[in-house]
Write a structure and sequence with these properties.
This protein is α+β, with helices and mostly antiparallel strands. It contains 7 helices and 5 strands, in the order H-H-H-E-E-H-H-H-E-E-E-H. Helix 1 packs antiparallel against helix 2.
C-alpha cells in the first residue's frame, strides 16, 4: 500500500523541474528508500532506484568533459574521471590515495584552499575560482575550479568533489590582449608627444 505512494513520490523527485533543492531531494529520497526497504516489494524498488541512480552518475562522471575528482574529508583522492586523466596526465592508480597537494603549482595554494573551502570548522566558500596547477609532465596550466564539500543529511562532511576546466588558452589570450593594449597605448602616447 505505502510502496505505491513512495514510488510516486520518488518519481516526483526525479521529475525535471522539481522545485525542491538537490539536498532536500536527496534527504527525502534516502528516507523514502529506507522505509521502502522494510518490505520485499520496497527492497526491490529501492534496488532498482539505486541501480538507476548509479547508472546516471556513471554516465555523467565518465562522459563530462571537465576533470572531476572525488576526495575524502582529508583530501585524499578516491576517484577521478577520464577527463582528469587527460588533463593532468596521471592514471587513476597513480593518484588514488594521494592528497591533492601535488596537483597545485604552488603548495601554499593547497593550504589556502584547504583553509578557505574544506575546513570542517569554517563556512565553505562556494563558487568558481582560478588556480594554477601542474601536470605529470611538469607543465603548468590554469584551471577554473569548483570545489564543493560532500555532506550527508546530518551535515557531516565526508568528502569533496573538485571540478576543473582548463582555461590556459583564455589566460594566454587575455595576456596577449593586455600586452597589445600596452603597446598601442605607448605608441599612441609617443605619437602625441612627437606632434607637440
Amino acid at each position: 500500500r505505502d510502496a505505491g505512494r513512495y514510488r510516486e513520490a520518488l518519481k516526483a523527485l526525479d521529475a525535471p523541474g522539481a522545485s525542491q533543492t538537490r539536498t532536500a531531494c536527496t534527504v527525502l529520497k534516502a528516507e523514502l528508500l529506507e522505509r521502502l526497504g522494510q518490505t520485499s516489494e520496497g527492497r526491490k524498488l529501492a534496488e532498482l532506484v539505486l541501480a538507476k541512480s548509479e547508472a546516471d552518475f556513471h554516465a555523467i562522471f565518465e562522459g563530462i568533459s571537465d576533470s572531476v575528482l572525488f576526495a575524502d574529508s582529508r583530501r585524499h583522492i578516491c576517484r577521478v574521471n577520464p577527463a582528469f586523466i587527460r588533463m593532468f596526465g596521471y592514471t587513476a592508480d597513480e593518484v588514488t590515495g594521494c592528497t591533492t597537494e601535488f596537483l597545485y603549482a604552488d603548495p601554499a595554494d593547497y593550504a589556502e584552499q584547504g583553509r578557505r573551502r574544506f575546513n570542517a570548522e569554517s563556512e565553505s566558500e562556494a563558487g568558481v575560482y582560478e588556480m594554477l596547477y601542474h601536470r605529470k609532465d611538469g607543465t603548468e596550466f590554469w584551471a577554473e575550479t569548483s570545489g564543493t564539500r560532500i555532506v550527508d543529511c546530518k551535515g557531516t562532511v565526508y568528502g569533496l568533489v573538485g571540478v576543473h576546466r582548463d582555461i590556459t588558452e583564455r589566460k594566454q589570450t587575455e595576456k596577449a590582449l593586455r600586452e597589445s593594449e600596452t603597446t598601442y597605448r605607448s605608441l599612441f602616447e609617443n605619437m602625441m608627444n612627437s606632434v607637440v
